[in-house]
Amino acid sequence: MKKSKKEFIALIVFLIALISFIVCASSITMPKRYELGANWGAFTEEESNSMDVVFFGSSMAYCNVVPAVIWEDSGLSTYVMAGPEQTLGITYYYVKEMFRHQSPSAVMVEISGIIYGRYPSDGSIKANIGYMPYNSNRFGATINAAPKSEWLGLFFPLYNYHDRWTKLTDDDYQIGLEGYDIDLLAGYHFLSDSLAQTEMRERSFEQTEEDYQNNLSYLVKIAQLCQEHNCRPIFYLSASYAYFPESYLERLQNDLAQIEGAEFIDFIAQIDEMNIDAEHDFYDILHFNYRGAEKFSHFLAQTLTEIGITAQQPYDKPQLWQERLDYYHSLIADGGTKKN
Fold first, then answer.
1. DSSP conformational letter for 271
2. Where are the domains of the chain?
3. What pLDDT score was predicted for residue 37?
4. Are the CB atoms for 72 and 47 separated by under 8 Å?
5. Helix or strand (DSSP H, E) at 278
6. Is the pLDDT of residue 182 over 60?
C-alpha cells in the first residue's frame, strides 16, 4: 500500500513537471507578437479595470484606431484588442476574455467580419487564438471557432513551434519567462505607406446564409455578454473607401436593431465629415495609414463624447497616456520605425 502511494505521488510530481516544462517551452518557442493584433501578452500587463473603451474586430480595428489620439481629445483610456481577419466567433471569446481583466464602459466591435465565412481564409486562426491566455476562453474559441485541423497546435502550441529552438533570440527567452512590456501603441498598428484611392467601391464577397446567421448569433452573444457586465455594446463599420451593398447593409441594420441593447454606427457613411484625403490618407482601400487613422480617431473621440462615454475615475493615468502620445508622435517623426 505504501509503495502504491509513493508511486502515485511520484506520478503526480512527474505530470506537474512535464506540464510545467511544456508550458514554459511553448512560451519560449512561440514567435513574440508585438503588432498586427492578437497582442494578449501586452494587454494582460495593463492595470486591471483601467480601460474606458476596448475595441475589437479585424485589421480594420487595429490599423484604423489610435488610442493615444482618442485620449488626447477626450481623456478616454482605450485599447484595440483585435486580430488579423478575425471572425466574430473568435471576437466573442476575445470580449469574454477581456472582461476577466477590464471593466470598460463600452465595447466597440468593428463588424466587417459579418461577411466572413466560419473560418478565415488566410490561416490567421493560429495568431488569433494561439496568443490568447491558456484558459477556458481559449479552449472555447478553439472548439467553436477553429477547424479541427488546427486543434492540436492550439491546444499544444509546442507542436506548432518546436522547430524554432535553433532560431531563438534573447527576446524569446526573456519574454517567454518574464512576460511582455505594455504596448505603448495600445494595440494600434502604425502604417506609413500610402496608396491613393480614386473612388469609393462596393465590397464584393460571397457568403452563405448559414455563415451570416452564425456571425449574427455571435453579435447577439457579445451584446448579452456586455449587458451582463454593465457595458454598452457598440457595433460599427470603420470608415474606409469600400462600402457594403445597399441591400446587405439595410438587412444588417434591421437585424442589429433586433439585438437588445446593441448600438450601431456606420462610419463609412460619415467619412466626408472626417477631412480624409483620398490621395494621402490610405494604406489600401480598407485601411488608413497613420494620417487617416489619426483623423478617424479624432472623429471617434468626438463621437464617443457625444454618445455619453466618459472617463472612469480614479483610473485615469495621464503619465502613461502622455508617454503613449509622445511615442506615437515619435513614430511619425522617425518614419514609422517601431522601437521594441
1. G
2. 31-147+178-333
3. 87
4. no
5. none
6. yes
Name the average pLDDT for the chain.
Answer: 88
Q: Report the amino acid identity of residue 303.
A: T
| CB-CB contact of 215 with 145 (8 Å) | no
Most confident of 153-157, 171-175, 192-196: 192-196
> What is the average pLDDT across 223-233?
97
For residues 110 and 188, give the distance between their C-alpha atoms in angstroms, rounded to a whole number.
14
Whose grid coordinates read 492540436? 152
Query: What cell was used for 172?
Result: 524569446
Q: Coil, strand or helix: which one is 210?
A: helix
Res. 67: pLDDT tops 70: yes
- DSSP H helices in the chain: 2-29, 40-43, 59-62, 67-74, 88-98, 125-130, 136-145, 151-155, 157-161, 170-178, 209-228, 246-257, 290-306, 318-333
Residue 199 φ/ψ, nearest 5 degrees: -160, 155
Q: How far apart are CA 60 and CA 301, in angstroms?
A: 17
Contacts of 36 by beta carbon, 8 Å cutoff, 6+ apart: 59, 62, 84, 127, 189
- Assign domain 31-147+178-333 to its CATH superfamily: SGNH hydrolase (3.40.50.1110)
pLDDT of residue 298: 98
Cell output for 184: 505603448
Helix (H, G, I), strand (E, B) or coil at 90: helix
CA distances from 333 to 178, 290, 328 (A): 31, 12, 9
Q: Is the pLDDT of residue 336 over 70?
A: no
Section 79-84 average pLDDT = 96
Other Cβ atoms within 10 Å of 4 Cβ, number: 8
Cβ-defined contacts of 283-286 (< 8 Å, 24+)? 283/63, 283/191, 283/193, 283/194, 283/195, 284/195, 285/195, 285/197, 285/201, 285/240, 285/241, 285/242, 286/59, 286/60, 286/112, 286/240, 286/241, 286/242
pTM: 0.90
295: its cell numbers = 483623423
